[in-house]
Amino acid sequence: MSRADSPPTPPGLPLVGNGWAFSRRPVDAMESWADHGDLVELRFPGQSLYMVSGPDLVEQILVDQHDRFTIGPRQQATFEGIEDHAVTTATGDRWKRLRRALHPAFTPDRLQQYGDRMTAVTARFVDDWAEGDRLDLTAAMRALAVQLLADSLVGADLRGEEDVVIAAADALVARTNFRRPGQLLPDWVPTPTDRRFRRSVTELDELVDGLLADREAGAGEDVLSVLLEAHERGDLSMAEVRHNLVGLLLAGHESPSNALASAWRLLSDHGDVLDELVAEYDAVVDGDRPTAAEFEALTRTRNVVRETLRLYPPTTGVNRMATTDVTLDGYTLSAGSQLFVPQWVLHRDERFWTDPERFDPDRWARDTTRPDHAYIPFSAGPRACIGADFARRELTLALATMVGRVALDVEVDGPLTFTPSLSLRPEQDITATVHRR
Ligand code: HEM
């Protein structure tokens, strides 16, 4: 039965509504909104947005009734001019076709092949560090994530060109930053953020042109070869090949780099857990770096990855728009309603997690009784992250390879806060001192 009234709205400020709190401290704001209920209505300048933070409601939206929701215009606007023909922005039958075309690039066999190269790339990266080196941890993990991805995606060595990819991701994050000065201007006024965005897109386009040149369908065993084969069969246009490549380059490095940096922050604070990972490495790894086949046996490392993604989910939330009127939690939301599912809130909810703020990788070996959708770093349902298995494998193998070679002593410059954008990026400078094993 549906109720006539609307969900509760947490208090906000005149004009800017709930936007101000989010732009100041996004995770604190999301946590305080959830105190008002599993479904709340938020007011932002010019629009309202429903935040959904109960696992059963999340399951309804992302899984059971997924066909009554799609991605919203905000997600399409974010990627406009760069991923218009990619799976990330497509809806309906077009999205199904693009998703089907990408699928063969992420089968278990393919992931197994990428796995061995992931550890080789990580070993090469870490072997450049000397005892006592001081690293910008965020920058280092981003460069590593781009190199890891480039190898599996296009079989290329992008050393020295990581910044082109990183600058485009920065421009996307800036576009969605709630604090950006242009946020309240009409779309046609070019802001510095827009100009930076266009410049970085041009450079990324040139890089992608180079990657596409001289490639033939069937050549290589990377993601690009799958895209080109789909083009040969007539399943993908060349614009779709190009935009999906760009989409994968961006979606595929931002979150993994964020997760690797979080894992090192946590391990640096929890020496006992790092010691366990080193012991696991010594017990499991035969050669001078892990092999893809050893992935399954790296149980503790896999649990550290899981726990890192619980405490520090790299994305701020999953966005959806209702395509019909829907009833949620007894309230009727009209077609066109915008919804948002914040992983941070679900992952730290005391109803489902014992001692939720504690970094406790062993919880994954102990208690498993919790609702399925209390943990969704990669979202859920048919539209969940296509790179989820790739990322789990990459993060585990890269972390194990690093742990086998170095320990990092991490210092965060001040209490951790996050950028109010599509990605939960720490705002502080984070330095790491290298100790070689
Ligand atoms: C820690 C790593 C990662 C996290 C936490 C993550 C998280 C997510 C989330 C939350 C979504 C939104 C899903 C939805 O709307 O329901 C998504 C979508 C996507 N991700 Fe990931 N991701 C990660 C790594 C990757 C990697 C490595 C790749 C590619 C190699 C990738 C490619 C994509 C693509 C293409 C989409 C759009 C899928 C679609 O709309 O059908 N991601 N990811």
Automatic annotation (TrEMBL):
GO molecular function term, any single one: monooxygenase activity
Gene3D superfamilies listed in its UniProt record: Cytochrome P450 (1.10.630.10)
Keyword Metal-binding tagged: yes
Classification via InterPro entries: Cyt_P450, Cyt_P450_CS, Cyt_P450_E_grp-I, Cyt_P450_sf, Cytochrome_P450_Monoox
Cross-referenced PROSITE patterns: CYTOCHROME_P450
Keywords: Heme, Iron, Metal-binding, Monooxygenase, Oxidoreductase
Protein origin, superkingdom: Archaea
Family statement: Belongs to the cytochrome P450 family.
Protein known as: Cytochrome P450
Organism: Haloarcula salinisoli
Taxon lineage: Archaea, Methanobacteriati, Methanobacteriota, Stenosarchaea group, Halobacteria
